[in-house]
Design goal:
- This protein has 122 residues and is mainly alpha-helical.
- The protein folds into 2 domains: 62 residues, Winged helix-like DNA-binding domain superfamily/Winged helix DNA-binding domain (Arc Repressor Mutant, subunit A); 34 residues.
- It has 6 helices and 3 strands.
- Strands 1-3-2 form a 3-stranded antiparallel β-sheet.
- The longest helix has 17 residues.
- 13% of the residues are buried.
């Protein structure tokens, strides 16, 4: 499922807490965006049409909840990034971050721990 960056921001609000009305989503996004209510409602409608969220009537308003689990979306995004940039391989990704000086000592220790766990499982 393709979700734009703007739609992902709306999804993050709903993943943190749901269900929420459009007014609550607008308020949650106010700190990081200057989006007006019609913009947020347009994004909510796009997400509804894609099946990423669902809406249920609550009086005169709708309450929105995610249908797409965050973990599933993250997996799709990370796999797409790996495929697009690194031919689906993780090692070149890690090498890239290493060459760019983006790996801290804590990151390296965590990678070593993860590799040791993988070795133990095999």
């Amino acid at each position: 499922m393709q979700i734009s960056d703007a739609e992902a921001m709306v999804m993050e609000v709903l993943w943190r807490r749901s269900p929420q009305g459009a007014d609550e989503v607008v308020a949650a996004l106010a700190a990081t965006t200057d989006w007006a209510e019609p913009t947020v409602k347009t994004l909510l409608n796009r997400l509804l049409n894609k099946g990423a969220i669902e809406a249920r009537k609550d009086g005169r308003r709708y309450l929105y909840s995610p249908r797409l689990p965050r973990g599933e979306w993250v997996q799709q995004q990370s796999q797409g990034l790996l495929e697009k940039l690194f031919g689906g391989r993780v090692a070149p990704l890690v090498a890239h971050f290493s060459e760019q000086g983006k790996l801290s000592a804590a990151d390296v220790a965590e990678l070593r721990r993860l590799i040791a766990e993988l070795d133990d499982e095999r």
